[in-house]
Amino acid sequence: MNETLKIAVQKSGRLYEGSMKLLKECGIEVSNGNNQLRVQAANFPIEIFFLRDDDIPEYVQDAVADIGFVGENVVREKNKKVDQLENLGFGKCRLSLAIPKNGSLQKAEDLNGKRIATSYPVILGEYLREKNINASIHEISGSVEIAPRIGLADAICDLVSSGSTLFTNELKELEILLRSEAVLISNNNLTATKKMILESLLFRIRSVKKAKNNKYVLLNAPNDKLDIICSLLPGMRSPTILPLAETGWSSVHSVISESDFWNIIEKLKSNGAQGILIIPIEKMIL
Ligand code: ATP
Ligand code: ZN
User: Fold this and answer.
1) Distance from residue 12's CA to the centre of ligand 1 (Å)
2) DSSP letter assigned to residue 33
3) pLDDT at 149
4) Residue 143 backbone zone (phi > 0: left; psi -120 to 50: alpha; other: beta)
5) Closest ligand 1 atom number to CA of residue 70
6) In the 8-state DSSP scheme, what is residue 146?
7) Within this chain, domains 5-89+181-211 and 93-180 share the same CATH topology
8) Is 233 in the pocket of ligand 1 (CB under 6 A)?
């Protein structure tokens, strides 16, 4: 099989680390030495192209790359013909409207007749139309957060994660337009071989994601509490139960989801579980 799947990844910036880490967790070895534009993986039929994130949707649409890892915010803004296949669990942020902390603007409707600076004119334009707000959009490509201070705009629409950039610029978040994370996009006309490679990559990505969302739990329980404890543990099938050397006690093994974690642990403890161990899972194949 000579055909390779060409994958576009951000060259440098907020998505670079997460993208390379995910490929690594999928068992794909990539050496991105000395700033190359493209690299062939050593043990999987993919070739990685390092690009500016803004260009990735267009390159994938035009089949320069077959698939790409890029922020959903960019996919929505660029509006190219690509298939969005999977959320990747990193690069989480939101696109928000923000206004000066102590200004006269209070709510979205106050933006009528005002100027909003953004790098996301398409998404912002859609929002303003939907809400019937008649504001003018000033498209700028970087440092949007300083626009109100230098008198370039009355408000901004920009990406936020912790909110610290807004805070240092004396801005406050008014409304969230979009919640975003890195996603996998694909060209919609792949060859059969490329589709096969993509399926295999997706299988690995899903196994990595499932593993991250779950923990392996080991605990000791008195035998008369096993029923109640097992009912608290959903597990992949049912929990594994092994007798301990001490009579009347068993060791219970299961898998629990990260989101239920604290809730379940407390219930397990209050129902007699002891010596609870929580272990990260590396890969999870169902
Ligand atoms: P490039 O040089 O590739 O154009 P960039 O400066 O446009 O890079 P980055 O700031 O590296 O882009 O952000 C890339 C992506 O990371 C964003 O499009 C978004 O999906 C995600 N992201 C996550 N958190 C944030 C944040 N706090 N601010 C900006 N982007 C974020
Ligand atoms: Zn960019």
Assistant:
1) 10
2) G
3) 94
4) left
5) 20
6) G
7) yes
8) no
119 C-beta closer than 6 A to ligand 1: no
Ligand 1 atom 20: residue of nearest CA = 71
Ligand 1: residue of 54, 75, 87, 93 to mutate (most ligand atoms within 8 A of CB) is: 93
Q: Which residues pair with 153 in a beta bridge?
A: none
| CATH architecture type of domain 93-180 | 3-Layer(aba) Sandwich (3.40)
Task: Assess whether the C-beta atom of 250 lies below 6 angstroms from ligand 1.
Answer: no
Instruction: Provide Rg for the chain, Cα atoms.
Output: 24
What is 5-89+181-211's CATH number, 3.30.70.270, 3.40.190.10, 2.60.40.10, 1.20.1250.20?
3.40.190.10
Mutate which of 51, 53, 162, 184 for ligand 1 pocket (most atoms within 8 A of beta carbon): 53
* pTM: predicted TM-score of the whole model, two decimal places: 0.90
Mutate to test the pocket of ligand 1, among 159, 165, 167, 180 (most ligand atoms within 8 A of CB): 159
115: which strand partners? Answer: 136
Q: Which token pair is 7?
A: 């994958």
- Ligand 1 in reach of 53 Cβ (< 6 A): yes
pLDDT of residue 31: 84
Residue 132: the pLDDT is: 97
Q: State the closest ligand 1 atom to the C-alpha of 181, by its place in the atom list counted from 1.
A: 20
Say which ligand is closest to the CA of 123.
Answer: 1
Note the CATH number of domain 214-280.
Answer: 3.30.70.120
Q: Is 272 helix (H, G, I), strand (E, B) or coil?
A: coil
Q: Please report, for the chain, the start and end positions of each structural domain, with discontinuous segments joined by +.
A: 5-89+181-211, 93-180, 214-280
How far from each other are the two terminal CA atoms of the chain, in whole angstroms?
27
Distance, CA of 192 to CA of 188 (rounded, Å): 12
pLDDT for 236: 64
Write out residues in the chain with pLDDT < 50, as ranges.
Answer: none
pLDDT recorded at residue 235: 65
